[in-house]
Design a protein that fits this description.
Radius of gyration: 25 Å
Strand order of the largest sheet: 7-6-16-15-12-13
Shape: elongated
Distance between the termini: 83 Å
Mean pLDDT: 80
Order of helices and strands: HHEEEHHEEHEEEEEEEEEEE
Low-confidence stretches: 141-156, 159-164
Helix content: 25-40%
Largest sheet: 6 strands, antiparallel
Number of helices: 5
């Protein structure tokens, strides 16, 4: 190595060291972008669905964490909703509504970010999908219909004022609108067949379309290979844990899952 080359190397080092850009704190939009990249990178393809993670743990430098943590739960919910909206646009399936956490990570530089993911079908989330205005207006009309038709008693699952603190399915749209079915068994079959626990008058529903299963005091919707699919909050699912207020669509019939208080 000649003297000129050595001088050039030393000069480059001095310039790089003394004039390098200082590391900057991470911006919220960078976190959102990294989460989306992670979601797309971790797709899992099944026979009929493309699954993406529903748990995202973000690890940051302690100074970045202090800034973003001050935004509170609202920021984390905003990130989770962004993931959900983008995932739905791509036709992806979440096991539950997504959740985002932020933590202090080891060996993370200022401005750096690391994301770890998980598929968890027993997650309980703190937010719900916002209903569209038009749907809310329809819902209010259907609530009135429910009051008028609440005297109907067509099966052991239908409305019974003597039963308390039971989960139930309320038909909010379809030919059976206004009916309420209490889920007083560990497993409830829904479909067009006469032997189904909840028989639905809808030609677009399969003979055995879906079932609701109680596992450890949590309720899951499971599609049974139906022709037209099962949807929870506009998301097509194979198996999905439902929370109070969630809407389930089968054929042209809409149900709302809820718990009587």
């Amino acid at each position: 190595m000649n003297l000129l080359t050595k001088v050039e190397i030393v000069a480059e080092y001095i310039i790089t060291y003394f004039f390098r850009q200082p590391a900057e704190s991470i911006q919220p939009v960078q976190v959102a972008r990294e989460l989306l990249k992670t979601m797309f990178k971790n797709k899992q393809v099944s026979v009929s669905n493309v699954y993406v993670p529903n748990v995202y743990r973000v690890y940051l430098h302690k100074d970045d964490y202090a800034i973003l943590e001050s935004f509170g739960e609202t920021f984390l919910v905003e990130l989770a909703k962004h993931l959900y909206d983008q995932g739905c646009k791509q036709g992806f399936t979440f096991l539950t509504l997504p959740v985002v956490e932020i933590n202090i990570g080891d060996n993370i530089d200022l401005g750096g970010i690391s994301v770890k993911i998980e598929f968890n079908d027993s997650l309980v989330v703190s937010w719900q999908v916002k209903e569209e205005k038009g749907y809310k207006e329809q819902e209010e009309l259907e609530k009135t219909t429910l009051l008028i038709n609440s005297v109907k008693q067509e099966s052991s699952f239908e409305l019974n004022q003597g039963r308390k603190s039971l989960p139930y399915l309320e038909v909010i749209k379809g030919k059976d609108a206004g009916k309420v079915y209490y889920l007083d068994q560990e497993e409830v079959m829904v479909g067009r067949n006469e032997d189904c626990d909840i028989k639905v008058d809808d030609v677009e529903i399969s003979r055995q379309h879906l079932r609701l299963v109680n596992e450890n005091r949590r309720w899951f919707v499971q599609d049974l290979g139906s022709t037209n699919g099962t949807f929870v909050n506009k998301l097509r699912v194979d198996r999905f844990m439902v929370n109070p207020g969630d809407r389930i669509k089968a054929g042209r019939t809409f149900f709302r899952f809820n718990v009587e208080k």
